[in-house]
Amino acid sequence: MATPARLDHSIVITRRPEDAWALFTRLGFTLSPVSRHRVTTTPDGPPVLGCTANRCAYLDGGFVELIGIIDEAAPDPWRVLPLIAGGDGGLRGVSFGLGDSDRVLDRLRDTGLAGSGVLSLERPVGSGVLRARSVHVDRARTPEGIVHSAEHLTPELVRAVPHANGARALTGVLLFADGSEVDSIRDRYATLLDRESRKVDHGRVFDLDGGRLELVVDLDAALPGETPPSSPGFVAQEVGVADVDAARALVEGAGVPTRDVPGGFLVSARETFGAAVLFRSAG
């Protein structure tokens, strides 16, 4: 039986959280209130108040997580700060729903990908406390950023909300890879996701139970006009919206430039603190 695999959320990390949160609000996303992270550093260890807080755009399928550095002197148990060393931040990771965390850990240990035990995360959400478990892929194997599983223990606190831009789902995360690296990266994600990719004009695509991961070799074909990051590097997150034209009118009406891409429009990483957003029809 194939391992369940869905796109859970994209991970944007920034040293300018107030600016980033304001920008994503202008893009038409309804963001959750600011919530400080408490995370464990070892399996069954006590939660530690970390250096980050987030706001999220919760969708019918997956969500966009906007993580802000709010106290660089506070503990950094999940090693977030090295991911934005020398800059303000950007799209730095992806999380996949892979089922039960204990089974995920066993499988990743067997394949040499595990970089942690089963870790716990909690943060306040309204009058409740969101709780989740996660297994991180060995950071030495993911130079593109942070990659981990997500098992939601309080799914009732991860609920979709209406968005002015008509956003319905996180439909894709795009990872740029130099042609010389794409085979090894493809094989790594094939192991993690327990499925094979298919070839497309600009690279390869992993079709998941919800959403997809794209390995982009030809950046001009996938995202015309974008500047390639260091390879490998996450280059964009794709959001499916109810009406592409209406979403574009809202974004441009907020004074944010857009560009045409096949099937939709792009808000460049240059406008989004390094976290490009690709808008296409949710279908």
Automatic annotation (TrEMBL):
SUPFAM superfamilies: Glyoxalase/Bleomycin resistance protein/Dihydroxybiphenyl dioxygenase
InterPro entries the UniProt entry points to: Glyas_Bleomycin-R_OHBP_Dase, Glyoxalase-like_dom
Membrane-spanning intervals of the chain: none
Protein name according to UniProt: Glyoxalase-like domain-containing protein
Pfam families cross-referenced by the UniProt entry: Glyoxalase_3
Classification of source organism: Bacteria, Bacillati, Actinomycetota, Actinomycetes, Pseudonocardiales
Location of the Glyoxalase-like domain: 7-180
